[in-house]
Amino acid sequence: MVGLTAVRPGRLYDEVVAQFEALIASGEWAVGTKIPPEPELVAALGVGRNTVREAVRALEHAGLLEPRRGDGTYVRATSDLGAAILRRARRTRVEHVLAVRTSLERDAAAAAALHRTDADVVAIRAALEARRAACAGTDRSAFAAADVAFHRAVVAATGNPVLIDLYAGLSEALQHTVSEIDEHDDDPAAFPGHEELAEAIVAGDPDAARAAADRYLEAARTIMARSERSGS
Length: 232
Description:
Blueprint: H1 12-26, H2 38-45, H3 49-62, E1 65-68, E2 72-75, H4 80-89, H5 94-115, H6 118-135, H7 140-156, H8 161-182, H9 194-203, H10 206-231
Antiparallel strand pairs: 1-2
Helix pairs in contact: 1-3, 4-8, 5-7, 5-8, 5-9, 5-10, 6-7, 6-9, 7-8, 9-10
């Protein structure tokens, strides 16, 4: 099986946990996807069922994996930090998550313009194109995923590992936020500022990048306020 290697005798449990964590952190086992069934994991790792079960259970307790009765086990978060942020975000209101998003993304936009590399520029352009393609479709969940992927590419361009980890932990909650906003807007693809944000980062203009971020964040706040009024 891709990504897994036979475990050497000794501390079997620790090595299995480490391999699972590496697959999750690398995105090989992406958030929201189901991990391989137990028999496949046992065969790939060359360990007993109990060792695999204990490793999976440990990552469930840590919040990285989530069992779904009758379906299987899914990846919930990429790190302990991400799991903790997700647990907290699920207990709060959408506007609170949006407020945190505003704080992070305004400064991230400016930092990305100052510190982006050639590789970051390529990644941002590719993510923008994927977002543009998702805008043309009718799948709202696909649009939400593409939107979050674009913003994660922007944050990655800051080169700040702490900010990158914080944003990665918040990504699932952010995707939920985009979906919530989507439900109350006739054209979620019409959020202004994304094209301008990418252009400003490529040009190395932090002021323009921050201004572009303000545009789409203000649009999100306006839509949320409108949805609250219509629901009241």
